[in-house]
From TrEMBL, chain A:
It comes from the Bacteria. It comes from Leekyejoonella antrihumi. The lineage of its organism: Bacteria, Bacillati, Actinomycetota, Actinomycetes, Micrococcales. InterPro entries: SoxD, SoxD_sf. Pfam families: SoxD. GO terms for biological process: tetrahydrofolate metabolic process. This is Sarcosine oxidase subunit delta family protein. One of its GO terms (molecular function) is sarcosine oxidase activity.
UniProtKB/TrEMBL annotation, chain B:
Residues 564-834 form the GCVT N-terminal domain. This is Sarcosine oxidase subunit alpha. It comes from the Bacteria. The keyword Glycoprotein does not apply. Residues 466-549 form the SoxA A3 domain. Pfam families: Fer2_4, GCV_T, GCV_T_C, Pyr_redox_2, SO_alpha_A3.
Amino acid sequence: MQLIPCPWCGPREEVEFHYGGQAHVAYPAAPADLSDREWAEYVFFRDNPKGLFAERWVHSTGCRRWFNAIRDTGTHDFRAVYRPNEPKPVIS
Amino acid sequence: MTNSFRTSTGGRVNRELPLSFQFDGTPYSGYAGDTLASALLANGKHDIASSIKFGRPRGVFAAGPEDPSGVIQIEEPFPEPMLMASTVELYDGLVASGLPGQGWLADRPDPARYDAVHHHCDLLVVGAGPAGLSAALTGARAGARVVLVDSLSEAGGSLLGSTEVIDGRPALEWVESVTAELDEHPDVLHLQRATAFGCYDDGFALALENRTDHLGGAADPDDTRQRVWRIRAQYLVIATGAHERPVVFNDNDRPGIMLAASARTFLHRFGVLAGGRAVLFTTNDSAYAAAFDLSDAGVTIVAVADSRAQVSERLQDGCVRRGIALHTGHVVSGTDGDRRVESVDIAALTGDNEVGQAERVAADLLLVSGGWNPAVHLFSQARGRLRYDDGIGAFVPAEDLEQGRAVGAAAGHFGLADALRDGASAAAAALGPTATAAVTEHQVDDLVEAPSAVLWSVPGSGETGMAFVDLQRDATTQDVLRAVGAGLRSVEHVKRYTTIGTGLDQGKTSGVVTSGIIADALGVGVAELGVTTYRPPYTPVAFAALAGRNRGQLLDPVRLTPTHVWALTRGAEFENVGQWKRAWYFPREGESMDGAVARECRAAREGVAFMDGSTLGKIDVQGPGAGELLDRIYTNMMSTLKVGRARYGVMCGADGMVVDDGTVIRLADEHFLLTTTTGNAASVLETMEEWLQTEWPELRVHLTSVTEHWATFPVVGPKSREVIAALVPDLDVSNDAFGFMTWRDAEIAGVPVRIVRISFSGELAYEVNVSAWHAMAVWRAIAEAGRPHGITPYGTETMHVLRAEKGFPIIGQDTDATMTPQDLGMSWVVSKKKEDFVGKRSFTRLENQREDRKQLVGLLPQDPSVLLPEGGQVIETADLPEAPVRMLGHVTSSYHSATSGCTFALAVVRGGRDRLGETLYVPMNGTPVPVTVSDTVLYDKEGARRDG
Ligand SMILES: [Zn+2]
């Protein structure tokens, strides 16, 4: 069972976490101004890369806080975790 | 015949402690320290099982868990199928039998106790052989938290089955001194009879400890029989040794054919001679030790067939000194015998993949060694890469793990000096300078061995007769060649085609051999072909052990409401709602469920009834941004709610689909309390937190689950006002003073309560909320005050009938994740004023505007006695047409209405609201039943009853 490093609690077992999908998909500033297509892009469409992916996670049975992570979807390695107000780290 | 194959002295068994056991109905005796296999062999019992496909007799092929053929069933004290005789420690009273490839499960619950322990350490060492002990000792001396696990009954590993010398003393003396020193370190956990069976991410490993079986009847029945250790290690040292590899030849499966080092182990560890006249067939130097030691113990070694053209002088001398005929360049080409090997055919290798004329020699034991496979299972599970080593014909670790390393024989370093050095340096690498300083050098007498030959299968094997690759699966060389002939090229495909490696031994002896045979057949290298994936568990683990304490009552937590015991004593039937036990209905003596529900409904509609609704999810929302948060989450406006008032609300996902509903009350300017459906309490809180933390961090709001803190008792019915008035005499309960959707603080039975005028039944109703600690006092007070009015307790079934009669949907029952508030006919709950809220933009999507969306409607069976099945499909025609039938929707709720004297249902139907009055059909047992589409409200359509 993998350890996931919560930015607040430190490394904890993966069963304590829930997955929250792609990170940095901001809620549109004015949804009413969007076309159906643009709105659907926000609601339904997400990237699905093999390799590094910025994702949201929540420490559900721990501190209950959300954070972002850069994870390698090929290896499941968490390459970085950062709080929601922190910029996405640059990882090669 | 008792222990006639036991040496007079020696071995690690306790000859002072004889044990009785039964096998296949025959009584035998053995000693404490025996395995079932060693005890059977000591009694000269070799044919102990039969094979799964061909029913051929099979014996003990190996002394450890790699044994593919000695498969047995324990019958008493408790049935346990499919165990290897070599891994079952003997105990007094054991009753076992050989298996024809399949066992049988107990027909009663296992009375034994199983549990799990979590443990954390700096260094996890798997295997207490020379490499593992050396690693553990180095770690312990450096002050590290060390866990050492080993599957055998005592430490020593391969040293237990050999005559090695360390620092001039017998190796087992060194083992004893190391374990004694480990014992003195408080931070060292040393477990024997504990098999690490799985390695996972980030240094996580599972080990199964057998704690009581070997004690037999002396074991405390309350003690834990097996324990799963869940170990999280900073660094993993894999010192799991190596498995000897067989060579495939004709009739290589007879009882009495055994891996060479296993026979040596039976001799040195158990004082057991595996036969009287033996032949050794080898491709390497290591097996000579078995032949020599057995010879020295009195076994006649008839011949040694070594596939290599030359062997060292030392080995030649050893054979000469013992009078052993050494045939270099020879192989075993076949065997004969009835229930056991009786003769062995020895033939010369004649150049290009052929064997010469065989010479038949009489023997009751055939020792085989085709070299060694490092036990890389755990290393590979931990995602270590393997590489094929041509020299030894085996896969070895190609690298260190990020947090670990394979050492000694597991790394392909077979010498004793290598093992001792490897173990210590792994610990030093993990722990740094203090451990490096603790590394000790040892003097051992390692013989430099000549290179092994790599031989998977004797030429010509299987062309006539059967040559087995996987003894447990009865899979032969011909099966492998057939798979290759069918076009399979990958070892994984061949495995699945032939079932090789899928037995409970998981191919420990057959895996690499299979790769070799495929490679030869395809004319490719073993390196490029690879080997099948190693997956946990390394050895079989019973589900009971994995379940541990999580059985029966402890399988899942049970949540009880404050009135649970009261309802129990009133004879309530309960239903499970998630983890909650909820009172379902309260039957009187001799009353059916339908009768009870009809009576409870009547009380609520005509008099007064009360229930425990405490399972409702409750979330306390506080902070200056509370109103704004609720405005963004709910479809309707919440920030305008006045203190003292309540409002019904619906929440949607961003896709506009309803996810939950409930009521919101405002307790203060910056303080709200909202309810969720019972099943969604956790997910609603998590969703609200998600929006709050990830999208609206500027809102200053705290969310707290208070589901268990508040008990909730709806008091329902036209007489409920009188009951509340009696309970709280100084509260003005008139409709003008205490109107619908308002709340008041009050006191009942000396306990502060909050009373809310909300109704889930359409009747005049008061919801009494009280701290769960004091709930029973208030519940009893309500029962007492209601007694003059015949107050009736009701359960969830009546609650459902009452709400369905009013057309109130249950989110998750009448909806799935495709229903909008508009689909539910609740456009009124969607704010037109708010610029935005979660889901709003989706309502105007083209898809959400379609007129043929499924909408919630009522269905009235035209025969008012027919109860429609929930989940029943709704179709358009009276005759069931040919499939595929066009489905218009399905029934979501269906009940008898005692009040209206008919059955009724809620359903989602395509374009349903345009179909009011139409006749549709619901097939029941293949016959479409006519129903009339109606609006969702069956009872009190004008809503006249809620104010009493
Ligand atoms: Zn956390």
